[in-house]
Amino acid sequence: MTTKRQKYTREFKLEAISLVVEHKRKVAEVAQSLGIGTSTLDNWVRKYKKEKQGIAPTEGLALTDDQHRIQELEREVRQLKMEKDILKKASALLASDSLNVYR
Fold first, then answer.
1. Residue 103: is its pLDDT beyond 80?
2. Distances from the Cα of 76 to the Cαs of 2, 20, 69, 70, 82, in angstroms?
3. What is the pLDDT of residue 56?
4. Distance between CA 95 and CA 87 in Å, rounded?
5. Which CATH number fits the domain 10-101, given the four candidates 1.10.10, 3.20.20, 1.20.120, 2.30.29?
6. Which of 7, 39, 44, 70 has its CA 20 to 30 A from that of 87?
7. pLDDT tens readout for residues 53-66
8. According to the model, what pLDDT value does residue 100 have?
9. Is the distance from CB of 40 to CB of 53 less than 8 angstroms?
10. Which residues form a coiled coil (predicted)?
11. 12-70 per-position pLDDT tens digit
12. Taking a C-beta distance cutoff of 8 angstroms, is the pair 17, 45 a contact?
């Protein structure tokens, strides 16, 4: 039997991290009170601290607002590049078709 993996919202993660980082509570104490694994919360805290130092997350959604915004902008840039490439190819096809019509 497989167990379903629990998904947590970004807001929930940030609140849990805040209890550890800003309120100076122990990871184990916060994890137990929120009903999550100690290692899970510890991973979130380490990831958050790395992001605060400017190290971009390698996987998943960013926790800090700055890194989150960077991820959104990177997605938008990828989308725009893809659209630009499609338009280039379409215009090249149309140009070659119009040349063939006049021959």
1. no
2. 36, 33, 11, 10, 10
3. 75
4. 12
5. 1.10.10
6. 70
7. 877 777 777 888 88
8. 65
9. no
10. 63-90
11. 999 999 999 999 999 999 999 999 999 999 999 999 998 888 777 777 778 888 888 88
12. yes
Residue 49, Cβ density class (10 Å: 0-12 exposed, 13-18 middle, ≥19 buried): middle
Question: Phi then psi for 10, rounded to 5 degrees?
Answer: -60, -40
Amino acid at 21: V
Please provide the average confidence, as pLDDT, over all residues in the chain: 87
Can you say whether residue 35 is alpha, beta or left, with left for phi > 0 and alpha for psi between -120 and 50 degrees?
A: left
The rounded distance, in Å, linking the Cα atoms of 86 and 79 is 11
